[in-house]
Every structure is written in C-alpha cells, then in structure tokens.
Description:
Blueprint (H helix, E strand, L loop, with lengths): L2 H7 L3 E4 L3 E7 L4 E8 L4 E8 L7 E2 L7 H13 L5
Antiparallel strand pairs: 1-2, 2-3, 3-4, 4-5
Amino acid sequence: MTAKEMFRQNYFDLIDNADGFTYAKKDGLGNQEIIKFNKYHKLVSIYWKSVNPEDDRTLPYKSTFNVNIHLAITQQMKELGWIW
C-alpha cells in the first residue's frame, strides 16, 4: 500500500506544494491538521492551521497521531528515499 493510500484511509487529502507536498485533514471546527513534507530540506512538519481566510494562522494545538499515521509517514519517507 502506498503512503497516499494510507493517508487517504485516515481521511487526509493530498495537496501539492512547490517545495514538496502536504496531507491535510479537516476537523469539524474549520481547522486542518497538516502533515507537510519538504523535499528540499527533507523535513516533516506536523501542525494545526485555521482554514478561515480571515484567520489564516498556525494554531497552538498539539498534534497527536496514532500508529497508522506513524506508518503512513514512515512509508512516505521510504517512497521519497529518505530512509530504507
């Protein structure tokens, strides 16, 4: 199973960026949990962001994830060739 499929099973949508790509999952309050892969710097960022255009900021929420998300992140890093 690919990382994209694993993230999709956990309700994350794929968004392409200039420097990599992002998986985003909306909550019921108008916010998104973001898992961003920066291919140039080989970084993974995990954070919450408001999806309200008038309140475009990073939120101070802690982001937690289960084993399935951990496996999806690991699979994505393998597909990118960052780990073996």
